[in-house]
Sequence to fold (524 residues):
Amino acid sequence: MLPSTFEVLGPVMVGPSSSHTAGALRIAEIAAAIAPRPIKEVTFFLFNSFSETYKGHGTDKALVAGILGLHTYDERVAESFKLAKQQGLKYSFVAAGQDPGLHPNTVDIVLDLEGGMTITMRGESRGGGKVRLVGIDGVDVKVRGEYPTLIMLHEDLKGSLTEITGLLAKAGINIASLNLYRAPVINKCYTIIESDEKISQAIADAVRALPYVAWAERLTIPGETHPSPNTTVTIDFTTCKGLLNLCHERNCDIATLMKQREFELADNKEDVDKKMEQVRTVMSASIEETIHHPRRSLGGFLDGQARAVFEKTLGKDGEAKDELMGERQTRAVAYAMAVLELSACMGVIVAAPTAGSSGVVPGCFWAFTKEPALLEKGLYTAAAIGAIIMNNASVAGAEGGCQAEVGSASAMAAAGLCAMMGASPDVCLDAASIAIGNLLGLVCDPVRGLVEYPCQNRNAIGVANAYSAAQLALSGVPCLIPLDEVIEAQNSVGHMLPESLRETAKGGLAVCPSVCEGCAQPCS
Fold:
């Protein structure tokens, strides 16, 4: 299913990285939820991009926070080591290096439980805070998390599944999917059942009580859409062409279509409006807080740059001066820099679609208007573009470089700006196509593995690009390549980028001589 608006404009989270902070936290949260006994000690084995940048991205703090049960938006994530010590949880990290056979953001979590039991989970962070469980105790599994899930370890006996499914049937639970993964060495298997109905603790306890079941736990994957069993989605699309066709058939704009889709996914309309209000509130606060009260970032690179841009051009009283970009774009750049600056301080922001690109959309929109109805129109339009990109490419820097993060955010913002100007869906998509094309091939090379430099400047460039792309599309400048093809090209280019230019801090600006001279550790 296409991601929902609030998977694209979300999660609401502590920075600095949606994949390396929020995603890492959620993987650990899953591991803790599955653990059948209290956790005594945990060891995290970090691979690929995680291995290279986990300290600078706050991945270590986030993983411990997930084990402790903190949410992505809890500002105590930054204090997770202290909290773990208070609770008597032992933890350690192992930089496991590169493994090309694994996802760029992979972690193995080894849990030592009470009673001498050990269990190992493998998770992947796919960008934008979305995660996937792919391994348990060395057995490859696949947990999507779209439905209520029951995971169990049991002996590989004839008739065992019949009895287990019989318990669910008696409870009136309809099985949506069932997958069994054998662990031949120990003659046991992991069975993962997804259901249309909520699985109660009583059902999990009944399955656990069967003599051949070692453990059984309920699971919900954070950050995924969880429609109710009675949900009927009539508005769904996977491509820009499909989106345009629906807009033309229903004679509506992109925002109206996307909002109506959210109404179909939700149990009630009030929940949708509350979620959008939360997105607007957090975005607005993330701008204002840093402009007026800047803080020093984790790595020390950022400390008031956003306010400096704002005051240099607009002055402390906000009056415009005669500068290069003009008042609106200057505000947009300053606002975008402010959000990224707050994220780098482990402040609370909205990933849109990622933390590394979180300044672009709010920077563009809040400089354009403060009117809630217009902002909502822009945000729903941006979410539609982001959802299609997430469905057909990637928004993770570790997968596709910065073009996947700032490039995608800039396309979302360009489309939203056009929508707020009253443009047709076709013009909105043209603007997004131009925006991605302008940043095609942009690499991800965080200096010292921190989401600070050049990340803040690239959020500023994402804003300028969005405004330019929107203006070109609104002026009728033709876009020769449809957005679907541009997204396909973005995905292809991302795969072509070497590992050193995909969020590993092993290439590009991250290895310039002046950077290496200032590093505490020698550059690799």
Summary: Residues 520-524 have pLDDT under 50 and may be disordered. The domain at 147-220 is CATH 3.30.70.260 (Alpha-Beta Plaits).
